[in-house]
Design a protein that fits this description.
The complex is a heterodimer. Chain A has a domain at about 5-60. Helices cover about 60% and strands about 0% of the residues of chain A. Chain A has 4 helices and no strands. Chain A has helices spanning about 5-20, 25-35, 40-60, 70-85. Chain A is elongated and about 65 Å long. Chain B has 2 domains: about 10-85, Orthogonal Bundle (Rna Polymerase Sigma Factor, Chain: A), CATH 1.10.1740; about 95-195, Winged helix-like DNA-binding domain superfamily/Winged helix DNA-binding domain (Arc Repressor Mutant, subunit A, Orthogonal Bundle), CATH 1.10.10.10. Chain B contains 9 helices and 2 strands; from the N terminus they run ααααββααααα. Chain B has a two-stranded antiparallel sheet with strand order 1-2. In chain B, helix 1 (about 15-30) packs across helix 2 (about 40-55). The longest helix of chain B is centred in the C-terminal third of the chain and has 24 residues, at about 170-195. The chains are: A mainly alpha, B mainly alpha.
């Protein structure tokens, strides 16, 4: 049986319909395809579900436990201290921490 | 080493450890679901702190979390724009082998090579399952970089479609085709690595 739309085209149309309304004829073709094709119905509900999950995932960051372990914390602190030690923020310290910005303070 | 606040700035500026303790975990928690790996996330968090420092009104209180997140958000978008530009391949977006492999000619029409399987898990279970999200991120990391950029900017960062098109220098049609391919690959990857194993 040859359907109006192939499954490949239907899957693509599912994506297009997420971005903007399909023209009437194509919406009809997609809906007809979905009516007769359980594989594409399943595909559609899976990608819609995926969109929904991803949206929640990025809005509920607490779901993913990101702990600032002591290594990570130390790494961030060290890098920031180093960057902060160069007053103009122009160049990162080349490892010589004792002369920040080339203005040695002579008492 | 010390950086005394000679100009009367609050002394929180003198020690980045204070910023890291106040906001580090929250910023990292924001960045991690969006970028591919821990080190990239840390880079972006660091850039965020440095930009905040330059902006000159860093006080270290809780209200500025929102402000820091908005800086971080820009850094994340910049990161994906850069990535998408660097790896842009002329004509490289014309076909997608993984998308094509999902379908096979069947009675004169492109049908599924292997029909999508049943996913018998509800949203709540998946949301709370750490292993699922690790696999998701691994699948996201396996996407071609322009697809990943399109997916993160549009679907995760919720950037407007027109803006994403400008950033990736593509047309509106290219964008949804790219998103379609990204979803195709993510779905297939998740099905193989999570739902059927």
């Amino acid at each position: 049986m040859k359907r109006f739309t192939s499954c490949k085209e239907a899957a693509k149309a599912v994506a297009e319909a997420m971005e903007h309304d399909l023209p009437l004829y194509r919406r009809f073709a997609l809906n007809f395809h979905l009516l007769v094709c359980s594989a594409c119905r399943r595909y559609r509900s899976q990608v819609i579900g995926l969109n929904r999950l991803v949206r929640r995932h990025v809005r509920e960051p607490n779901q993913v436990v990101v702990e600032l372990d002591s290594d990570t914390r130390q790494r961030l602190v060290d890098r920031l201290r180093q960057a902060n030690a160069t007053p103009t923020g122009g160049t990162l310290s080349t490892g010589n921490d004792h002369t920040p910005g080339g203005t040695p303070v002579t008492p | 080493m010390n950086h005394p606040g000679m100009d009367g700035k609050p002394d929180v500026r003198s020690d980045p450890a204070t910023w890291v303790d106040a906001h580090g975990a929250a910023l990292l928690a924001y960045a991690m679901p969006r970028v591919r790996d821990q080190l990239t996330a840390e880079d972006l968090v660091q850039e965020t702190f440095l930009a905040a420092l330059k902006a000159d009104n860093f006080r270290g209180d809780a209200q500025e979390r929102t402000w820091l997140i908005s800086i971080l958000r820009n850094k994340i978008c910049d990161h994906f724009r850069r990535l998408a530009r660097e790896r842009a391949q002329p004509g490289g977006d014309a076909v997608d082998v993984v998308e094509d492999a999902q379908f096979a000619p069947h009675m004169g029409s492109d049908g599924w090579a292997k029909a999508p399987g049943r996913w018998l898990v509800d949203d709540e279970t998946l949301m709370a399952n750490r292993e699922f999200w690790e696999i998701f991120h691994s699948c996201l990391g396996a996407l071609p970089s322009r697809q990943a950029a399109a997916f993160v900017l549009r679907m995760m960062e919720d950037v407007e479609a027109e803006r994403v098109c400008q950033d990736l220098e593509i047309t509106a049609t290219n964008l949804w085709v790219m998103l379609h391919r990204a979803r195709c690959r993510l779905r297939a990857c998740l099905e193989e690595r999570w739902f059927t194993s």
